[in-house]
Specification:
This protein has six helices and seven strands; from the N terminus they run ααβαβαββαβαββ. With 179 residues, the chain is of the alpha/beta class. It has a single domain, classed as Vaccinia Virus protein VP39 (Rossmann fold, 3-Layer(aba) Sandwich). The longest helix has 14 residues.
Length: 179
Amino acid sequence: MQSDYADRLAMIRTHVPQLFSDPGSVLYIGARKTRCDYVQELYDAGNKIYVIEAFADNVLSMAGDPRVFSTWLLDVRDIKSFGWKHKSFEYTMAWHGPEHWPIKDAYQCILDLENLTSNTIVLGTPLGRVPQGKAYDNPYERHVSSWMPEDFEAIGYRTASIGERGAMGSCILAWKEMR
């Protein structure tokens, strides 16, 4: 079974309803104008959305988007250098982001994001290894790590998944309440 946008949104709404019922500031990792999954739904729920994105063309594409309060050119691996205070955001959402981070950096990235998050952190990845190369002239689009639910569970996350391991469109939802 391949999942689609609606399947994934239903999974998020089921397991992380506070994103839509208790709005706050959302640090959203990685977006471009044509691919910023669930930003509209987060915005409609009353969240104030902040985007960090590593690829300059994507940052430019988000300029002037009325749903986004601010967008910064920043690689998530350098987030500590940005100077945000501990627990600066209620939520962090790295939706289909961790598979783009080298595994040697990924766990530190997740820890750094947890330190910035006061309510809930939400991560999404394909289920298992799903190859993807550079896309849209963006070298950050490559899948350089793969994940299984137990990888997230081992660091205190709850998980749900849809689709088949290694299949395009499969998805792991991992979330951790920081309160």
